[in-house]
Structure formats: C-alpha cells, structure tokens
Amino acid sequence: MIEQHLTDAARPPAAHVDAGDAGYSKSLKSRHISMIAIGGAIGTGLFLGAGGRLAEAGPSLFVAYAVCGVFAFLVVRALGELVLHRPSSGAFVSYAREFMGEKGAYTAGWMYFMNWATTGIADITAVATYTHYWGMFSDIPQWVIALIALAVVLTVNLISVKIFGELEFWFSIVKVSALVVFMVIGIVLLVTQHPVDGRHPGPSVIADSGGVFPHGLLPMLLIIQGVVFAYAAVELVGVAAGETEKPEKIMPRAINSIMWRVGLFYVGSVVLLSMLLPWHTYRADESPFVTVLSHIGIPAVGGVMNLVVLTAAMSSLNSGLYSTGRILRSMAVNGSAPQFTAKMSRSQVPYGGILLTSGICVLGVGLNFVVPADAFEIVINFAALGILTTWSMIMVCHLLFWRKTRKGELTRPTYRLPGSPWTEIVTLAFFVSVLGFMYAGGGAGRTTVLCLPLFAVALVAGWYAIRRRITPPASTTAGR
C-alpha cells in the first residue's frame, strides 16, 4: 500500500513500522467502513444534545452545526490522506509517533483516551436518560441503568472485530433510517401544513420565535463545544482502516460521504426541528425528535424514536471501546501505556485497553449516582477538550507530513487534503477559538479550560514516569 503511493526515488531509506499493527484480522468489509463513517457522524450529540442546544441558542444551532461540520470534515480528510500514506490501527497515535516522536504519540493517545472515556460516560448517561422516558423504568435509579448498559456493550465488544463491524453496520442502519423517516414526516407536516401543537409549521415558527438568532450571536458561539462533541467519532473511520483490506479503495469513498451526510442530517434536521416547534419547546433531558413526535398526537411514535436514539447511544459507547482498545495497544507496545493494554485475545481483540476504558466508564456510573441531573453536561465538556486535542494532533501530523513531501522525503497520495498548509493553520486557529468560547461560557466549560494546566502537569508527570520504558519503532522517519 505504501508502495502504491511512494515512488522509488521518493521513498525514505526505511519506512515507519508500528508494532501495534501486528496481530489484527482484516475482517472489516467495505460496507462496515461505510456505515462506521456514517455512525461516527451521527451520535448522541445530535440525538440528545440537540434538544438542550436548541433551547440555549435557538435555530442558530444549524449554523453552528454547519461550521463545525466543515472543520470536522477537514480533519477526517487529513486523516484519510495519512491513512493512504500508511494504514494503521493506531491511526493518529501512530502518525504522531512517525512525525512528532514518542512524546507526540504519548500526548495524542492519552488525550484521545480521555475523550472516549468521558464520551463513554456521556453515552451511558444518555442511555439512562432515554430509558427513563418510559414510565415502567422511572423508578429504577439512573446509575443502575447506566451500569447495565456498560456491561452489555463491554460483553459484545470483547467477542471479535467482525461482530463489532456487524453491530455498527446495523446500528448505523437504524440511526440513518430513523432520521430519514423523521425528516420525511417533518417534510410532510410542512407541505400539508398539519398543525403541530396547535400551530402551522414553517418558517413563520422561526420568525415568530425571535428569528434565527433569538438572543443574538453570542449564545450560538457559547454552545460550540457541545457541537464539537456531536461530531466526535468521525475519526473512528481512520482507526478502523487498520482492520480492513484495500483501505486505499474504501477510505476515500467513505470519507467523502461524510460531508453531505453532515449537511443533510445535522443541518437539515435542526432546520426542520426549528420549523416544526418553537425553539424554546425543546429541553435538555429529552431528545428533540421525541419532543416533536410526541406533539403530533401519536405518543407511541415518540416511544419508537426514543428506542432508536437509545440504540445510537449504545452504538457510540461500542465505538469508543473499540477505538480506545486499538489506540492503547499502539501505545503499549512502545511503552507509553500499561503493558496489559497490549494484550490480545484469541479472537484478535485488544481486550486490555477495552477493559481499561470500561473501568473509567464505571466512574461515570458513580457520576450518575452523585449528580444525575448534571452528568451529561459535565462530561461533554471534558470530552470536547479531548477531541479538540485529538483533532489538533491530526492536523499537526498532516502539516508535518506535508512538509516532508515538500522536501521530497515522502510522496502524497492522490487523495489529499485540499489547501495545505493553510487549511491546517485555519483549522487549528478555529480549535483555539473554541477553547475561548468554552471559557467565555462559564460554568462547566470554564472549569474545563481552567483544568488545562492540570492536564498538562499530569501528562508531563506521566511522561517522566514512563519514558525509560519507551521502545522506539524498529525503523522510523522521525526521531524521538
């Protein structure tokens, strides 16, 4: 695969080798990768988070989704080019090791772990919230439901990558089908002018409720970190590339499809939601899709949709355990993660890393016990910080890769991130601005930003604790 994209004249003396890529089965097929790409772009952030975001910023949420969606696509496009340069189950951790050295791989890996560990907490919180929609479960404590959800997904994830791929395939089918059905219902309501909650749907609902920016531009900017969280997992397609055959054929098609799906499902859904009911009708503790369907006079439809979004949260949790297992193994074989996370099962599953992530999610069960009402908002801010770091590392890796191609040390594949190096620079500047919005928003967002020095100290302390265990790759295009 490297040979397909590097000429003999441009090929470096020794190609980068990542020991963490050994031992995996190539069981994921084209249909799995395509649906993983869809599933990564459609998750808990849309199905649950959109309700609270609409209540905060009004219809301007669709603008935030559009802007963040463009940058998320640029990130995954950059990752796609790196994948075609050298497919790896370690994904951006492996590329950080190649272009930034072991310190870069260490930082990228542990921040990504923080992202998915906290996202997993958000997912099990979402599952518990969705389940409480049905009265028969209202007496069961939220933390009990969260623990059951974690146990189920952990068991499934440990079986094999083929089972993971099949589950994600069908999870994504369910999510996409549900959104399509909802959008069809919404369009029919608009065309027929069928009353929703006593009023006719359409642009007038937005206009009569204060317009696109009912409270001005600032509320939209302050919810950016939550919108970024909604796109977390688009990079999962890069991790999955290491366990599929012929990624050079599969990846470009899967990645290119993300852009129009973002436009259709995220932007389109929010516009529809805003035209069906006033933005202040939605709330943080209920999926906005369930809110609409419950208001059209068919409560059972709301229950069905609630089941669908519960499936989406389980899918996201499943993906998180999958990706962190691979990332931690890539780190462990070089000494920057606990050695038990490098262990593989007979079915070629890196179970050590999966169990470590699950252990952190158990803390999320405790969070649901202590502060069940605020658990979701608390963790998505930390998850947003983790995903911002991960995406930034991907763009930095691509920038360093681009510089090597300019020097003639490497050759870019035909599938490329357009506009380098300015695309990377603008994207990184946007991510820095998101941190500013998080701080300006106060509350959990400001607390998260203020915790950055603590994260930095923890990373530095961790590095000095493990640096003597670091084993560099057998051959590499970058020094330590």
Shape: globular
The tally of beta strands, per DSSP, is: 0
Kindly give the count of domains: 1
The CATH topology is given as Amino acid/polyamine transporter I
Percentage of residues in strands: under 5%
Count of separate DSSP helical elements = 21
Mean pLDDT: 82
- Helical amount: 55-70%
Helix-strand layout with pairing:
Blueprint: H1 2-5, H2 30-41, H3 44-47, H4 49-57, H5 61-85, H6 91-100, H7 102-131, H8 142-157, H9 161-192, H10 203-208, H11 218-222, H12 224-230, H13 236-240, H14 247-276, H15 288-295, H16 299-332, H17 351-370, H18 375-406, H19 422-440, H20 443-450, H21 452-466
Helix pairs in contact: 2-9, 2-14, 5-14, 5-18, 6-7, 6-18, 7-8, 7-16, 7-17, 7-18, 8-16, 8-17, 9-14, 9-16, 12-18, 15-16, 16-17, 18-19, 18-20, 19-20
Explained architecture:
It is a single chain. The chain is an all-alpha fold and 480 residues long. It has a single domain, classed as Amino acid/polyamine transporter I (Up-down Bundle). It is 69% helix and 0% strand. The chain is built from 21 helices and no strands. Helix 5 runs antiparallel to helix 14 and helix 16 crosses helix 17. The longest helix is centred in the middle third of the chain and has 34 residues. The protein is globular, with a radius of gyration of 22 Å. 54% of the residues are buried. The N terminus and C terminus are likely disordered.
Concise overview:
The chain is mainly alpha-helical and 480 residues long. It contains 21 helices and no strands. Residues 1-14 and 475-480 have low confidence and may be disordered.
